[in-house]
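Hi Y.,

Following your request, here is the sequence exactly as I used it, all 683 residues.
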Amino acid sequence: MRRRFVRVASCIVLLTSPLLVAVAGQGSPARASGPPAPDQVIFAAGDIARSAPNDAGTIATGQLLASQLAQNPGAHVLMLGDGAYPGGAYSPDYTSYYGSTGWGPAVPQTLPVPGNHDYGQVQGPSDAGYRQYFDSVLQPLVSSSGAGPLDDSNGWWSTTLGAWHIIGLNWNCGADSTGCQGYPLGRQGTWLHNDLAANPTPCTVALWHGAPFFSANGSDKEVARGPSVDPKTDPYWQELQSAGADLVLAGHQHQYERFDHMSNPKSAPNGVGKVDPAGMREFVVGTGGGDPGIFAPSGTNAGTAPPAGGWPIANIQAVGSQFALAGNFGILKLVLHDGSYDWSFISAGAGNQNANTVGSIGSSPDLPAGSATNVTARPIAPAGTVLDHGSDTCHHAGADGTTPTTGGGTTPTTGGGATPTTTGGPGAGGAHRNGYWMAGADGRVYPFGDSKSFGDAPPSPGAATVDIKATPSGNGYWVVDSAGQVTARGDAAFHGQPGPGALRAGERVTSLSPTATGAGYWVFTSLGRALPFGDAVSYGDMSGTKLNGPVLGSIPTPSGKGYYMVASDGGIFAFGDAVFQGSMGGQRLNAPVEGLVPAGPGRGYWLVASDGGIFAFGGAPFKGSMGATRLNKPVVGMVPFADGYLMVGADGGIFDFSSAPFLGSLGATPPAHPIVAVAPLSS
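Below is the corresponding structure, written out as tokens. Let me know if you'd prefer a different format.
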């Protein structure tokens, strides 16, 4: 058995008003195939520099940026507009307020886009101060992009950093005579259309200043507006989405916000866009030091104190918003892999000092659970604290047949059984998708291979995540916690969950199994109860039987007209059209059984124990095990994979017993919370 890590395909990135940093030369051609390109590190933020005495946020983010750049040699900075207040003047706005902080020395590494304040405190026709300050980087960017000569009316550009295509757009498109129209009527829209056609890299990120999606916010000085009321860049979003772009970075709204994959912003009947797995993920990072935002309903007067318990989020949270934080300055860090990316929002340790103005909406894996109905008050986090993180894959990852790379980890690299041979990469032939997700006890979801992240699923208070299962399409998943809370992500639909008082004393939920249609699921408990939801039908359970060990796992039959349960002592219980083909019940085990895995229709099943031991029944082929190997952490799950199976350890290590390429693990960097489950990608 071998452990291998794979990073596949190149990516495209879109930036709006935040700041990004990457690690590659500009203007290099897109790579069609070959070994993976090196990772690129990017730091992003917009809405940055103010003068004293209001410059605490600017100084703090500048110090954070300088520290991060020292730790990440070769990184780039993406400045997402409104770099210097009040009016983007060359002096003193940029040379003093911006240049005297940690942002100034980073200019040679900076890829900027202009904001509205770069055209004056009251937006005018010229961004001369911005262009003069960044001239040394803008001139070669614009010239190499075929978008010059540089003047007030253009300023858009593109470049390649490693495996990613980076596109910078001018949100102030009204400065051009053709306005903000798309291809073929608008000058910027036509350039974007042609640039995307000429740079068909599998990953793309774009940036411009004004965020198309945002939750409603104001400030101590401005009336609240939103959510999602800026249709200006709709033609650009549509062009980018049609090309399969992956990310949009923006600012203008003085908050941090992470969105799901979204479709053309104002195409939905309600005018605020819609979640769409084929769309782009947006990050709003207007947290560089400008007047900090405050979440409030649209029309709320500046400086209005929130009610006790915080504003209700019903009229504040935008469609598709997964997590938002206002009042805490910080910088977004992106690590751009070949075919995927990681993000983390890092606190600068400064923010709004007025009471009850720092708040969050939605959930982050790095913060305690907040209110589901109201804005949650938060303290300003110390400098360097990660307040949100995650990872995702590019839409076209794997399309170029990138060669997997080999890496180490903390879990063993040897084990009994056959050693897999390497075959074509995920998605070979353009049809089959290969991948899996891991879920941590904290609800964080880690995608590998062709699997996409559709968001994390923090458990309910006092509970822990216990299982993750994919939808039949592979474009979503369900996550369930020990209290029975079911979270649906992607195209997964919520069909219900155990209500208050449904679980008995000492009983906990241990797994979830979807029906064949995906229109329902069963929730299984430690007492062997099967609770049906949606189109799931009860075929019986073990609720009236005394068990030697708790039920820990379940699998449905291919028809959906039956299911198996497995207990920790190796006992197997078959219901409906499930066929019993043997168990380890009544036999002495070296370690408790952790899961049951089907080998395919009519081929039996495997049991896996926490020590990595494998027990095959009913014709299931034995591919090897870890039973004779000392493990750093116990095995917590196993899934069918290609022509064999793979196991996952609590530290995120993967043991692959199949002939398919290994798609990666967390073994080299174990997560803070243990992995509890693994789910294969349905294709």
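The longest helix spans residues 56-71.

Thanks again,
Q.
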